[in-house]
Amino acid sequence: MNHPLRCQCGTLRGHVSRPETVCRGVCYCKDCQAYAHFLGKADDILDEIGGSDVIATLPQHVTFTQGLEALTCMSLSDKGMLRWYASCCNTPVGNTARDFRISHVGLLHNCLEDPSTSLDSAFGPVRMRVGMKSAKGTPKAMPVSTTVSLLRFMATLVRTRLNGSYRITPFFNPDDGTPRVQPKVLTPDERARLTEAL
Ligand SMILES: [Zn+2]
Ligand SMILES: [Zn+2]
Q: pTM of the full predicted structure?
């Protein structure tokens, strides 16, 4: 079963396959908060204590079917992760490592909204919370299955490295692993301006 993926305005569309294999988490780190402000969508992206709901999956499970030319990316620093979003309406799509051999994408909840189902029923409950020291409050207690689901996800990641399937990704060129678009990297000043508002 595929879960639909779309940006807010509907230009960029696609789907996520195997939604039952994902690992869902919330990240409260300052970088994710700064990114939400960069897009001008902090209210849409962040929960009431500054968390971003993220669905971690393999890039090979993400397929774009329309509007790929709108997919662009930025980074908060020259070593930071690549943060992919739809340039048409600034909907965040997903975050990847800079090295495509790390076969991971954290899809932001905003591109996965589907009127026919909830995130809980499509992807299961939140199983991970990271960056909690930057949270603006105390998050709810976590289910005990966190470690198990994290380990299972890590094992899948290692497998893609061994069998070479990390090359199947819509975010990078399969031959040389360069990102499909040149990331816009913020200068230290631009970045400082975003974080000082947090
Ligand atoms: Zn759009
Ligand atoms: Zn984060």
A: 0.94
